[in-house]
Amino acid sequence: QVQLVESGGGWVQAGGSLRLSCAASGRSFSGYDMGWFRQAPGKEREFVARINWSGDSTYYADSVKGRFTISRDNARNTMYLQMNSLKPEDTAIYYCKGRRGALDYWGQGTQVTVSS
Fold this sequence. Notes:
By secondary structure, the chain is mostly beta strands.
């Protein structure tokens, strides 16, 4: 089992940038495919980006493509989400998820607020 803790959220003006981190502890981080999701008030949780176990394959939601970059450092047991050109509609709680086989593990989330 892996434990995930997000950090790096906060308040930023539209057009600004933030970098989220997801620190993993427990079983080998490099064995997990990882992803970022977000949930805005009153909306369902939605997919943002994912990265495979080795970091050489990534995929993004259309809404963030070209603005967000997902990456990971297996030596540091950490995944990142660099968010640039932020928009008010990016406001949400951001969650990281780890998947190994049929099991999913979630962090507690970090709030991102983008003001116009």
